[in-house]
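Reviewer 2 asked us to include a model.

Predict the structure of this chain.
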Amino acid sequence: LNLPTENSVLDLATGSGILAAAFSERGHRVSGFDFSQKMLTRAQTKFPQIDFKLFDLNDLHSVNDDFVDIVSMGYFLHGASADFRKFVLQQAARISRKQVIIFDYCCSGNWLIHFIEWIEGSYFNEFVRLGRASEFAEAGLQIEQELNFSDYGSCWICSRSK
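Predicted model (structure tokens):
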């Protein structure tokens, strides 16, 4: 993404820390929030240079405005309800000084993705039916760039709406 390395990054729903680690390996100061202690323990073991915190995203309102330069999320939104997605996106816009970077499904994908998401009982089908631009705009974000990196995955680089 060619982001300046002086940008700080907060990775929401960091899980095993893979996305946080990708930013860290490129020289960014990174923190990761997740509600699962088991996942954070795994992340901390693999990536000890990253500051991981146990954190429920329902409490994002407690994070200060303009807390970090970049807020990132990787394959989290498709599993959340529309209301929770909007809340998280609004909070991400508020706490990010520069950009919100989202990696997730862009389209329906193949049968394996459908099967996995069916088992998980996620909001995947609703998510892929909706357009990202309108959903992001409702949350106060505008898409600066969209990068498709597979038949089913994209990255959206967003900034606060003006």
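Residues 82-95 form the longest helix (14 residues). Helices lie at 18-25, 37-46, 82-95, 111-120, 124-129, 132-138. We have added this to the supplementary material.
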